[in-house]
Amino acid sequence: MRWIRHFAALAAAGLCLIATAQTYPSKPVRIIAPAQPGGGLDLIGRTIAEQLTRSMGQSFFVENVSGGGGTIASMSVAHAAPDGYTLMVGYVATHATNPAVRKVPYDAVRDFTPIAMVGGTPNVLIVSPSVPVDSLKGLVEYIRKNPGKLNYGSGGIGTLNHLVMEQFKAAAGVDVVVAHYRGIGPAFADLLGGQVQIMTPGLAAALPHLKAKKIRLLAITGLKRHPLVPDVPTFEEAGYKGFDGVQWYGIVGPAKMPAEVTQRLNAEINKAIAAPALRQRLSGEAIDPMPMTPEQFGQFIQSEIAHWSAVARERHISLDD
Predict the structure, then answer these.
(1) Of 320, 274, 309, 8, whose CA–CA distance to 119 is shortest?
(2) Domain match, 199 and 284 both
(3) pLDDT tens digits, 154-183
(4) Residues 255 and 87 sit within 8 Å (Cβ to Cβ)
(5) Count of domains in the chain?
(6) Residue 265 domain-assigned?
(7) Are strands 151-154 and 216-220 parallel, antiparallel or unpaired?
(8) Which CATH number is 271's domain given?
(9) How many Cβ atoms from other residues are within 10 Å of residue 228's Cβ?
(10) What sign has the CA pseudo-torsion 219, 225, 226, 229?
């Protein structure tokens, strides 16, 4: 009799999961964006919310939860019911660089269900026009000939632009003093004002200044050149391997979400980012679609944490010191 009851329980659970997938979503779904309104994170959240609202016949809405570099939002989602009604824009900070440089009160792998990758924008190495170089090779030579004369700006300790530059310093064997700012905006202001000479911001943040001819691009991260700046070589083309990091954005939920709900959300998001209209909208932030299965996205997150943790250890970068 025990095995009959066990079989019945399993069958009931299976039917429950099927029913959940068929009826989901039966009420509005919240997508938490771990930042204030405006910018890439908010754009991703609202764009995906609009697409899912259309395709799934239920309201998906964005809730902006800023603070703690994404920690507050991450904890909120990690502790939410794993029923598919609380999702989050998980991105390179919350699920890669933050866990690499400090002890966060959540596990970026175990506490979340990876649902779908949306896309990413590469980082670029830029210099002020006052630096008389037009290539990475020229920059390295100039730094070595002018020790102590150049500084680089970062958007904060442990941010992607900070870690990319530290990775480059190690690969090139050069020393440039870092000036940390509270965000990439103030760092840009000082680069334009001459206080710092080098930065590695996201491409979207750099484009307005490039068009105004206030900066010079020397290299771009990623595996291939970007169509918005086709003349700018990748780091690998310039002789530096391993610079494939991008500012990426995806959708995650609490751990142990129903597989059927996860798969359905993944299919709808992948369908959305394949549409020309959405691709055009994302291109305004220089975001390229990066479709993945939930399993691939989970593996990607783990590889990102491992990569940036190695960079942080090598360069002795930690917010806990």
Answers:
(1) 274
(2) no
(3) 999 999 999 999 999 999 999 999 999 988
(4) no
(5) 2
(6) yes
(7) unpaired
(8) 3.40.190.150
(9) 17
(10) positive
